[in-house]
DNA sequence: TATGAATGAGTGTTCATTCAT
DNA sequence: AATGAATGAACACTCATTCAT
């Protein structure tokens, strides 16, 4: 499908994301999306094969935003000590979550819609998975962090940071009440091998 | 009068839970549920006011299971040092999650269906909330654990343990590969004030 | 069907009538009726063959009330001058309508439910019809009232008196603001041959 | 885009009206209507917001027909003596009813469905109401007609004329057996002040 | 590219009716 | 006589999707 109006596809995705955030992924319908964007319902099908494609596109777009931020690269630099690289990974997630406060929620919503229940939304995203998993695994092998399933560690990282962003959005506290070190020490204190 | 089939209500709830686990809460429909149970669709409405009631009943049933296990009581015993009580709380969640491997997933699914995004499913369950929150808050006040938002701590506990049960269900490792101490040290190491 | 509780059948009819008056005949359902009476839905079927029978019974009961008042007999007395007998008929309808302010409404509602549109609800009730028709026809033949279709005359009588009772129920004026003579002169003035 | 079928909306309204006339307003269902028109059930919702809108549209269409005939204007002409204007009003209703023999029935059916019991269907139609009420009220004030509630007079006019059209439809007599003067004298004879 | 029209399958829900107790 | 349980058919309504323009 060729597109003339370059802004329309993202606008459709934006509308979809908005609905997901407000009403949950299950509440998405092409009718609602079209109404939000101000286009006809059938127009959606020019940009997305079907509803599934639409929702998965929202999902993929959020995942791509992570790549775009690119902070993870630090974690792959083999010349840096592994503990610092783990910290780099946590920092990358933290920065990303603050910069894109809805991303984690969107990703989780879509996954829950599909009936999968992983607490760690990044799990099935190969590129990151590999980077993150290998850093953590290295750290485990080096005796720097505890020998526990990597998925547990990732889940811990994401749940803590995601909860933080949700708290911020709900104005449960001010954004400068806690800084990265707070969350880092919470996470690192748990995983580090003593 | 026809005698009441005492097993039917739970069977309907079971079918609903099964669908939620397999396809996600959004995929629940009265038709599917009825077909699962082998009754007519309208029969569902004899046991549940409407679809919402049905889904909320699944939700409530899981929450009640937590009460039934009652392990949390240890955490409220003021004569025990607060650090031990925090451990008691973590143990209670752990035991419950292992005994009811689907509960956390069911609860999260229902909450996600409603469009809420809390990582911690116990949050809106007053009784537990109060107990857990007050124990953690006490521990913070006593300088035993780090002064971070209680919601972060709870979310950490749940995500780690939930991920563990999911891993077990997916046969990612054997159930005796890791024991409670593994998860406790992971969590406690993070939250404890050093 | 034999009935033990002699009061139950009328109570069911009362409930049905109440619903008809409040929500219209189309809104009657056995569920609602049973709930109103405080019995089980299926119990209704012990007293009435089906929903149609129930509604028609309400209808018939109202028609029977007219017979019970028996004021019409005056109209049949051949020894009385026909003009007086016409007056007797109008008076009978008037008295009946005031004594049973809901009857005409109930009858009309049922007829409208069935999709018939006669303005004169008594039309298909043989006994009265005969009496009334023959009095009016006699009056026409005697040159006392205008030679118009009898149905028009009856419809005029009923609509005027019915509207009056509705006005009273809606408190549009007090019940002693107008008396029988008002309506009689309105009706009689129209039909009488000058 | 598929070109709009201009005839479809009226065809849906026609089908609905037909059902109302044959089976009563309570018997209208979107399935029946669609089947009548030969379209899919959901197509009805492209033209009418919901079933209520559909039925009210039938109602409104009939009321608009009255405006379209516009004969009532004569009744508002202040330069004409009030008695003549009352006659103009009655004539307008008569002409309208003959030209649109189903209109009064349709209007009444819809009103009865809504559970209202007014005998006079024009009552809640502000424009006409105002015109008619004020003419009649003027006539009362001028001592030309009897001082009775206006609603009674209107109800008399409508019931007589409506019954006439029903009689015609049922072939109870030929359309030229009676003319306007018959009904006018019946009505006017009743209301006029002597 | 874009749209309005159309549809068929689906949803939740109500209800009249039957049946076994 | 009375009831709770059960059902199947109906209903209003929504939605994903297709098609002709």
In short:
By secondary structure, the first copy, chain A, is mainly α.
CATH architecture of the largest domain in chain A: Orthogonal Bundle
**What is the multimeric organization of the chains shown?**
homotetramer
As a percent range, the share of helical residues of chain A equals 55-70%
Radius of gyration of chain A over all CA atoms, rounded: 19 Å
Number of domains of chain A: 2
* Percent of residues in beta strands of chain A: under 5%
- Through-space gap between termini of chain A: 56 Å
Average pLDDT for all residues of chain A: 90
| CATH structural class of the largest domain in chain A | Mainly Alpha
* Count of β-strands of chain A: 0
Count, helices of chain A:
10
Descriptive overview:
Four copies of one chain form a homotetramer. The first copy, chain A, is mainly α and 194 residues long. Chain A has two domains: 1-48, Homeodomain-like (Arc Repressor Mutant, subunit A, Orthogonal Bundle); 60-191, Tetracycline Repressor, domain 2 (Orthogonal Bundle), CATH 1.10.357. Helix content of chain A is 66%, strand content 0%. Chain A is built from ten helices and no strands. Chain A has helices at residues 8-23, 30-37, 44-47, 51-69, 73-76, 82-99, 103-113, 126-141, 150-169, 180-191. The radius of gyration of chain A is 19 Å and the shape is elongated. The N and C termini of chain A lie far apart (56 Å). The relative contact order of chain A is 0.11. The mean pLDDT of chain A is 90. Chains A and B meet through α7, α9 and α10 of A and α1, α7, α9 and α10 of B. The structure holds a DNA duplex (21 and 21 nucleotides). Chains A, B, C, D: This is Transcriptional regulator. Chains A, B, C, D: GO terms for molecular function: DNA binding.
């Amino acid at each position: 499908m060729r597109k003339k109006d370059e802004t329309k596809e993202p606008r459709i995705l934006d509308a979809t994301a908005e609905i997901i955030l407000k009403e949950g992924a299950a509440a998405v319908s092409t009718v609602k999306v079209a109404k939000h964007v101000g286009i006809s319902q059938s127009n959606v099908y020019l940009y997305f094969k079907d509803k599934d494609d639409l929702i998965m596109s929202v999902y993929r777009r959020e995942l791509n935003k992570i790549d775009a931020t690119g902070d993870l690269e630090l974690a792959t630099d083999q010349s840096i000590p592994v503990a610092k690289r783990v910290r780099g990974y946590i920092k990358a997630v933290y920065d990303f979550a603050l910069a894109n406060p809805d991303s984690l929620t969107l990703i989780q919503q879509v996954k829950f819609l599909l009936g999968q229940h992983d607490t760690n939304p990044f799990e099935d995203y190969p590129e990151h998975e590999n980077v993150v998993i290998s850093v953590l695994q290295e750290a485990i092998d080096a005796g720097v962090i505890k020998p526990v399933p990597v998925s547990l560690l990732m889940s811990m990282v994401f749940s803590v940071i995601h909860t933080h962003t949700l708290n911020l959005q709900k104005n449960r506290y001010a954004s400068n009440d806690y800084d990265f070190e707070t969350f880092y020490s919470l996470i690192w204190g748990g995983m580090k091998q003593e």
